[in-house]
Design goal:
Distance between the termini: 38 Å
Shape: globular
Order of helices and strands: HHHEHEEEEEEEEHHHH
Number of strands: 9
Helix content: 25-40%
Structural class: alpha+beta
Radius of gyration: 20 Å
CATH topology of the largest domain: Heme iron utilization protein-like fold
Strand order of the largest sheet: 1-7-8-9-2-3
CATH class of the largest domain: Alpha Beta
Number of domains: 2
Largest sheet: 6 strands, antiparallel
CATH architecture of the largest domain: 3-Layer(aba) Sandwich
Strand content: 15-25%
Oligomer: single chain
Mean pLDDT: 92
Length: 236
């Protein structure tokens, strides 16, 4: 049985205070997703002492991301079980084509909005002050991308973004959906390796790599595994 909203909130305060655990680690201890942890704090009027509050955002992702430039310098963070990627800079030249977004500049992103399910403005209060961030999750509650304000970031601009993009529904909770069943990749022996390698050599732009995968019906990891040494180097 999953913990109640009240228990999640109280456990968060206790665990955060005891060991300064990261949000994802607290969620793991509570046997919930990180998205559920954050969503449990929606609906709190003000941040409680040494606690957290969250404002649910609407799903106008391209418009929201285009507004991030007004924050000035921030930290962009994306992570998975294997690595953490942090980059300090400003979101500039934000554009999109359908469900694919692009950020070009010191923060350089390729965004697949079809994976974005929920977003929150998060304000965490501690003895060091308030930490503000924007956090985005997939339908399973896994964090996709986070944007943390730095001391020099524009807090009034953050407040403006929250006001503009706050969802009409501000009830706590996160409905976790079952992941879609992915089809098995085409067997390696069925791939035109020579054609794929030559097409890779002929690439003129990094943005053409994804269409190349589709052309040869390869998954990204399969493509890297089958690549010639001139293209990739295995690290571990």
């Amino acid at each position: 049985m999953k913990p109640t909203i009240h228990r999640i909130r109280q456990s968060f305060i206790t665990l955060r205070k005891e060991g300064r655990l990261r949000h994802r680690d607290i969620a793991t201890k509570l046997t919930i997703s990180e998205g559920e942890l954050i969503a449990a704090h929606v609906g709190l009027g003000t941040a409680i002492r040494n606690g957290l509050r969250a404002i649910r955002l609407n799903t106008e992702w391209p418009k929201l991301l285009a507004s991030i430039e007004t924050l000035g310098e921030v930290m962009a963070l994306t992570r998975n079980e294997a690595c953490v990627h942090e980059k300090i800079g400003q979101y500039r030249h934000v554009s999109h084509d359908g469900s694919v977004g692009l950020v070009v500049g010191e923060i350089d992103l390729r965004i697949f909005y079809q994976q974005w399910f929920a977003g929150f403005a998060v304000i965490e209060s501690s003895s060091q002050g308030e930490q503000r961030s924007l956090q985005f999750f997939d339908a399973q509650g896994q964090a996709i991308h986070k944007i943390y304000l730095k001391p020099q970031s524009d807090v009034p601009a953050f407040d403006g973004i929250v006001s503009l993009f706050a969802a009409s529904q501000q009830e706590p909770g996160f409905e976790v959906l079952k992941p879609k069943i992915k089809s098995d990749p085409i067997p390696d022996e069925a791939i035109d390796r020579a054609g794929f390698w030559q097409a890779w050599r002929d690439l003129k732009d990094t943005h053409d790599f994804y269409p190349l995968l589709k052309k040869y019906t390869l998954t990204r990891t399969q493509a890297l595994r089958l690549a010639e040494p001139e293209f990739v180097r295995e690290l571990s």
